[in-house]
Structure formats: structure tokens, C-alpha cells
Design brief:
Largest sheet: 5 strands, antiparallel
Strand content: 35-45%
Number of helices: 0
Number of domains: 1
Distance between the termini: 10 Å
Helix content: under 10%
CATH superfamily: Glycosyl hydrolase domain, family 43
Order of helices and strands: EEEEEEEEEEEEEEEEEEEEEEEE
CATH topology: Tachylectin-2, Chain A
């Protein structure tokens, strides 16, 4: 099949695809033109709410838009910027984990709960304790344990939460954007280990972390950590899926605009880098999910072709995804 836009009547992005009750659900962020100027910290992404789209036949059918499932005005702790989200099911309940800025301008992760995958979702009054940054992916393993992967550099603020012994660089080295004072520009030596995504196991009620977040380490084929100067290092958009007993951690490289992946033997990693899933698309960001639906694997992602490269007005797409015999993923062609 050719890549297909899934909801041309509105701008949506960051599609988190899940299969519930033999139906495909997509939980995207909801882009809008807020009038904010473009900046490297994502101030032009001023999303206010979440919708959910669903499909019976994702290759042919029009999307069913179930409407707004959560609005920033419903979340007591959140002030603005409802960025990426994901949903997981446990014991007949559906848990939406989302990222938003609190009233101090700090990104946190929150949880909202529903009885049905199409909502409505009722938010918890406080963010997840110990949470920070953006782009949650909630992965349910075969044993029922649920893990939350999250983190994003620059405007996603991941660099605010790293240890003080980080090998800082100088101007001209790869930038991490601002420190937590929101003024000081940070740089990292290109030969230093890249800043990792984070993962934490969720509590039985899926409302809190049961452990401190751990780093998601990506290794090169020689066993060394991927370096900060590598264009294939992690930036944002964590996603986890499982294929033939292996854990596939995929992510966006941000300013180099790739979707890449690494494979491990545990939900905690480490993960060995494998390659590029998707080359850069039109638009600054690239963000995705991978899911099997009725025997076919799919890549969901977005680009800015319909908005003529307006990077804060994105449109979600789908394309089939295939594996090689050795379990590696065949690169997806964005048509």
C-alpha cells in the first residue's frame, strides 16, 4: 500500500496506535495554529486537547473521530502544551498517560482513566510522582507488567534532569538547549555518551512509578554507548514493541530527523542499535508508533506536506512495515 493520510480534515500528530477489542485506536496530539513564533524549545506547539481516532480497516476506512477525550482545562495541575500521549489497558480500564507543562513551566506526566478506549478520560489531580519531560509510551509486556518510556531533549527538558557530572561541552558542540534556569545554554561533548531516554515500571493501579526512572541505554554494535555527536542518537519519541521475543526500542533523532531503532532482550535494555526505519519527512519533527493489527505490522507517523511545511501543523499517516528473516526492520518508504 502507499502511505495514507488518516485524518485529512484536521491537523494531528504523534500518533500512538493501539489495538483494543479487535479495533485499531490512534491517540494523537492535536495541532493548532496558536500564533506563537517558532523556537527551538517548541513554544509554537500549543496543543490544548486530545482526540481518539478508530478504524476497523486502517488501509481503507475513514477514521471515526470520537471527539475530545481530555482537555487541558480538565487537568488541575496542567497549564498548557498537551504534547504526546499513549494508552494502555489493564483489568478492563484504560489509562491515558500524557505530557503537559505545569504552572511552573515544567513538563510532567499525568494519568487519566476511562472505562472505554474512546473515553471519556478522567484525569488524576496530580502528575505522576517523580515524572518529568515528555513523550510517554506505555508498554504492556506478556507477563502483564507495564512500563513507561519517556523523555525528550531541548524543549522536552530531559537535559534538566541529568546528573551533574554530565560531560558538558562548549559552544560549537552539540547543543542541549537551555538548563533548568531557562537561560543558560548547555552543550555536550560529541564524544560523550548520548543522553538516554528513561523507563520506569508502573504500579499495579497504573497511576504511579514503582521505581526511579532508569536510563534506556543504546549501544553500538561493538558494545560502546552511542555518542552525543552521532546523528542516530536518541532525541525524543520513545516507542516500545515486541517481536518474536525481542524488545524493539524505536525513537526520533530530533534535529537529524530520522526514526531509528535498537533491539534488546529486556524491557530495560540495553538495546543494540540496528538502523533507520524512516528517513526525514517534510517538517521538523518526526514521531511514530509501531503496532501489529490483524496480522499486518504498521508504522504510524506524521509529516507536514498538507500544511505546506508548517511544522506545527502536522498530519498523521500509515504505511505497512515488514521484517527481514533475521528480525531487522525493512526501511519504510514515505510516499
Amino acid at each position: 500500500m502507499k502511505a495514507r493520510y488518516l485524518f485529512p480534515q484536521d491537523y494531528m500528530a504523534d500518533p500512538s496506535a493501539n489495538v483494543f477489542n479487535n479495533r485499531l485506536y490512534i491517540y494523537p496530539s492535536h495541532d493548532r495554529d496558536s500564533g506563537e513564533c517558532f523556537d527551538d524549545d517548541g513554544g509554537h506547539f500549543q496543543m490544548l486537547d486530545y482526540h481518539v481516532l478508530s478504524f476497523d480497516d486502517v488501509e481503507q476506512d475513514a477514521a471515526t473521530d470520537h471527539g475530545v477525550i481530555l482537555d487541558v482545562e480538565q487537568v488541575p495541575w496542567a497549564e498548557r502544551q498537551m504534547w504526546d500521549n499513549d494508552v494502555v489497558e489493564k483489568d478492563g480500564k484504560y489509562f491515558l498517560v500524557f505530557s503537559a507543562k505545569d504552572y511552573n513551566g515544567v513538563f510532567r506526566l499525568g494519568v487519566a482513566v476511562a472505562d472505554h478506549p474512546e473515553g471519556p478520560f478522567i484525569p488524576e489531580p496530580y502528575p505522576i510522582r517523580g515524572s518529568f519531560s515528555i513523550d510517554p509510551c506505555v508498554f504492556k509486556d506478556d507477563d502483564g507488567e507495564i512500563y513507561c518510556y519517556f523523555g525528550g531533549l531541548w524543549g522536552g527538558q530531559l537535559q534538566w534532569w541529568i546528573p551533574a557530572q554530565l560531560p558538558y561541552g562548549k559552544e560549537g558542540d552539540p547543543t542541549l538547549r537551555t538548563a533548568s534556569d531557562k537561560k543558560t545554554l548547555l552543550y555536550i561533548r560529541p564524544d560523550a555518551p548520548a543522553l538516554p531516554s528513561c523507563v520506569a515500571r508502573m504500579s499495579d493501579d497504573v497511576l504511579q512509578f514503582v521505581e526511579a526512572p532508569r536510563p534506556v541505554v543504546i549501544l553500538n554494535s561493538d558494545g560502546t554507548p552511542m555518542k552525543a555527536g552521532d546523528p542516530h542518537r536518541f532525541f525524543e519519541a520513545s516507542w516500545m514493541h515486541k517481536y518474536k521475543g525481542k524488545y524493539y526500542f524505536s525513537y526520533s533523532t530530533g534535529d537529524s530527523h530520522y526514526l531509528c531503532y535498537a533491539i534488546g532482550d529486556s524491557p530495560y535494555g540495553p538495546f543494540v542499535y540496528q538502523g533507520v526505519i524512516l528517513e526525514p519527512v517534510v517538517g521538523w519533527t518526526t514521531h511514530h508508533s509501531i503496532v501489529e493489527y490483524r496480522g499486518q505490522w504498521y508504522l504510524f507517523y506524521h509529516d507536514c506536506v498538507p500544511s505546506n511545511d508548517t511544522t506545527w501543523l502536522r498530519s498523521i499517516k500509515v504505511q505497512r512495515l515488514f521484517y527481514n528473516e533475521d528480525g531487522t526492520i525493512q526501511p519504510v518508504i514515505n510516499e
